[in-house]
């Protein structure tokens, strides 16, 4: 019983504001301006992290049995004896011009590494993301429809159980069972043709990744739907005489798309780094495996470049998502 | 007179899971006559909303309706109807308008879609036909420029317009029965008047029955033909509106009618429920003429508050919440501040309580400046000016015991001596506000709204301030509880010679409490003077509009209209 | 005269609600058992000699029985005939003396067992002991990292959400920087640095490197939620009322508001415990987690990967089951806790 007064004056909300630029351009400009300090922060963080806490690059490059002169000469070549601010500036130039030089381990150009590894990662990750979201939405909707019943509770417990088993177990066991023992899929491998990859080498990794994520996604999407079902407008929809199905699909789903979109947006940057576990286990030459190998070999340029560019990519994706919001949620005004 | 709806012995309870079963309705019966309005009146917890929602079976999942209950309409028992059959009636024959229009409309669909939906579902119109019909319905409910507004989203409309859209959805298919669940409670009083007039007009035009739920008896008198008074899940009294208002039989009904402060009566104290439930009632003493003003305590000079909002990349907009307010407050006197939402009255109160930064102007309390002070000085002045908030459920920290809540101000300002001295002071105040000593170790959620407000009052007054800002302090309380709190405030004012700044949107309450008054509109003070004078003779057009919008209750004109 | 304090506080109500949730109580019991195990292992009562090679390599679990071919091989062992070569043997004169010396020393001959309670690994270590010790390590890492991340996230979120303005802007910038980097990459970058940099020696022994990495990566989620809560609460009436009676900023931040959002923080803590245990398992699997001389469920899984091909399944099963039981129990406990803190009919 609510006697509280809400702020409902006689005047509509959102009286027009004045602006000299069209709203979309305004919005983009402002967001890009906001992104710059963040990107600078990332670059600074990576630089400082490796500078103060990382090993001496000269020692790493020179190898185990290098002499002191060799190390010093490498240090000079790398510019490590310059004052700090100059090193920071050099670093930023590297970032801006994409000139990272070569990997310390393989001597392959860092840019080329990215170029060649990214397609493999995307070939595996894109189907995973698409299937994950579709299945998660359907499962979440289905469970929300039967909320409160025994089915609901049983499904939730199964999800919890599934989530408690490590990803490793899924992969190890899945690989053993489906590839090694039953022989339905190849144990490992990759090819040069996109089609072969999608139809032969990707299915098992994709299957395993989707199995792992089904549990958490069902729970999460179920909570999105239930949050909406408990809103007042759903009661209004029922009072209009709509069937429960119509209420779910025509009223609840469009509203639940907003948090679902947010969830997809947070996962989107992740598909570029990919699942390194999958790439390592299945010998897929992707970016994740590349970075993992780089960590083991202390191959700093690769790690630094990956971190910074993926961070930049994340920010761009966030910006695009925010623009996308205004089509999904009419309450969002681009200003 | 035939009935559109007959509710027989409705018993509803809620299964709270581990918390047990909560019985909401204990056997409620009433009839909604054909083409007439029946009002269900009661305070919070009376079960009036539950009764209404039971008709269309729109109760939450955990509601349990007793199988012996019946709701008959058109020869069918609605409670025994199958879901598909009930759905054919919902939205077409029996429709509902809910209380909170902002949340009751789907935020991601245009209002046109939401109205057209019922037309396509029940009347079988094609999308094009439904669209045209929707424009006609929007016109009928008073949405201007229907041709364009049909594409608007709910958040782009004002509260009053949103409620008109809800009404449009409800009448689009020409229902037999319209259920209105507190449709105007969340709206400003001027908007409320417009919506009520709309509903009355529509009922007449479409010849439909209306079930109107409200806690406001005065409002109900203006549009109902029959009235049912409920309390604690039971019907206390029912009858024609004339009978209820002129010859109330039940003690509770009599109390409800009397507890509301009325504009044409000025009492020293308000009668309360107990006065009627316990026959040994008090006599109602008329209000004594205001004592010749005490010394001036507080002077406010050209006080202003601006908010700066970013509207674009480099552009900004200034909102003037309070513009150039000047007034003074005398000891022992109450200054009423009246206005609708957006008038700036709360902002004014918060500035005086030193919870908001002042943009311009000066406030002086007995020679000491309240504006432009540093943190230490502000802290010292907190002993002089205190504030009582509106929401009794949000203004007490639910993790603290009552004893701790009341001791905290003493501890901060070093009053009361040691632990036992403070506790003695706390107990003294608990008694003064009418709570027992065992409240000391209890938590706020163990108390009712009215009791919590008493705790708030004790907390504010334990520092012995000179000025108290009452920011809508009784607006969230039931009518009967309001009366007791207002009486308490008046008693304390007399005992401690307090000066009150009484802020409210409720004109009746302000009239009862205030000696002097100011009326605010969008940051400006449009009228000021003695309360009695303003109510008798409003000068400013806005004041006149405000006073004209107040529900008049049972008037001779209404009696004549019904006869 | 004054009545006793009765436990009708909100926590008292929460406890009452929790107690009536059977699933939650069962889960709590299991979690409690594990905690007892962890504490015992920490004190050295169990699992401390997990490194002892007490069994045959790949000894099967008791209920499976010793490998048939091993038994056969032992029985088929033909005693070796001793040849007398004392006339050629340069050491022959010394044997008696050495024999006398040796008999004076006591030494225990470790008899390698054929089967162990839960089987043995590649070098004959007891899988049960490893599982217990692994539980201790993995759970400890999860708990410590979760506590640290919660501490960081809560303090920063409180300051940012409450004060707003420049403080909030600065903290938001920090959050954006950390959040922009995909968490996998941040973990890798930190792992790379801690592995080969000057801190390598600091972190070489123990679990602190994993704990630090996980906390630095995991504080952002909690920060976001706590900040949102503080923004919501700072304009609530009870906080305004506290300001009105003169309470200080610190008092409002941590004495007034924090108890009102502690349920949010608690649930986040629980969720992160589960997440961090799973993360630690993967990190240790990859060799980026706990140091080499320690055992965790992750290292066990790492070893079991090759074992499976050979048909040895017991270490795999042990690690998987222990982890699954604990994580499921803890997750169910978290669900019940959430329900008890905020009962909504769902």
Describe the model.
The complex is a heterotrimer of chains A (335), B (563) and C (346). By secondary structure, chain A is an all-alpha fold. Chain A has helices at 23-53, 57-62, 68-78, 84-97, 110-145, 150-164, 167-181, 194-201, 203-229, 232-239, 244-267, 270-273, 276-281, 287-296, 300-328. In chain A, 73% of the residues lie in helices and 0% in strands. Chain A is globular, with a radius of gyration of 26 Å. The two termini of chain A are 37 Å apart. The model of chain A is unreliable at 1-19 (pLDDT under 50). Chain B is 37% helix and 25% strand. Chain B has 22 helices and 21 strands. A 6-stranded mixed beta sheet of chain B has the order 7-8-9-3-10-11, with helices on both faces. Chain B has a 6-stranded mixed beta sheet with strand order 17-18-19-14-20-21, with helices on both faces. In chain B, α4 (111-123) packs across α5 (127-140), α7 runs parallel beside α8 (189-206) and α17 packs parallel to α18 (479-496). Residues 279-283 of chain B have low confidence and may be disordered. Chain C is an all-alpha fold. Chains in contact: A-B, A-C, B-C. The interface between A and C is large, with 56 and 54 residues.
Radius of gyration of chain A: 26 Å
Q: Any low-confidence stretches of chain B, pLDDT <50, length ≥5?
A: 279-283
Counting H and I runs of at least 4 residues, what is the number of helices of chain B?
22
Q: Summarize the main sheet of chain B.
A: 6 strands, mixed
| Content of β-strand of chain B | 15-25%
Low-confidence stretches of chain A: 1-19
Beta-strand content of chain A? under 5%
Q: In percent, how helical is the residue content of chain B?
A: 25-40%
Residue share in helices of chain A? over 70%
N-end to C-end Cα span of chain B? 16 Å
Q: In this structure, how is the largest beta sheet of chain A organized?
A: none
What quaternary form is this? heterotrimer
* End-to-end Cα distance of chain A: 37 Å
Structural class of chain B: alpha/beta
Estimate the mean pLDDT confidence of chain A: 82
Number of strands of chain A: 0
Largest interface: A-C, 56 and 54 residues
